[in-house]
Amino acid sequence: MKITEFDVSLYCSRCQDETLHYVHYLNNKISSTECTNCHRKIDMHLNPKRELYKEIYKRVVTKPTRLTEEYSKDLNKFIVGVPKRALSKPYRLMKYVDETRIALKKFKSHH
Fold first, then answer.
1. Which of 99, 96, 111, 92 lies closest to 47 in space, CA to CA?
2. What pLDDT score was predicted for residue 73?
3. φ/ψ of residue 13, rounded to 5
4. Is the predicted pLDDT of residue 37 greater than 90, yes or no?
């Protein structure tokens, strides 16, 4: 799960002018916008748990296809890389869990 934030110039209906807005994304979907001038905030009411489930589901379902493409491109590279990837998987999984936990906390603090 990934949260990104951008500063974007948008038209604000309250200010009646184009102003700078903070735009927050959750997995590449807009979760909220906030005008920096009048602080009007619009939440898109995304469910972070649902977004997480969708992300994990997509990763699990597409894994066989991704592996097939990988070994079809270069079988030798794939075979040589498997032991390294197997050893690093627990680290990569913990890193993903930590990033997701941080993203969920950040999401809750914005809403």
1. 111
2. 93
3. -70, -25
4. yes
pLDDT of res. 6: 92
- Residues with Cβ < 8 Å from 37, sequence gap 6 or more? 12, 15, 17, 19, 20
Q: Is the sign of the CA dihedral 47, 49, 50, 51 positive or negative?
A: positive
Residue linked to tokens 């969920």: 104
- Report strand pairing: 41-43 vs 29-35: antiparallel
Element at 96 (helix H, strand E): helix 75-110
Partner residues linked to 6 by β-bridges: 23
Decide if 21 contacts 12 (C-beta within 8 A): yes
- For 54-93, the pLDDT digits (tens) are 999 999 999 999 999 999 999 999 999 999 999 999 999 9
CB 20 within 8 A of CB 34: no
Could you tell me the two tokens for 105? Answer: 């906390």
Amino acid letter for position 105? K
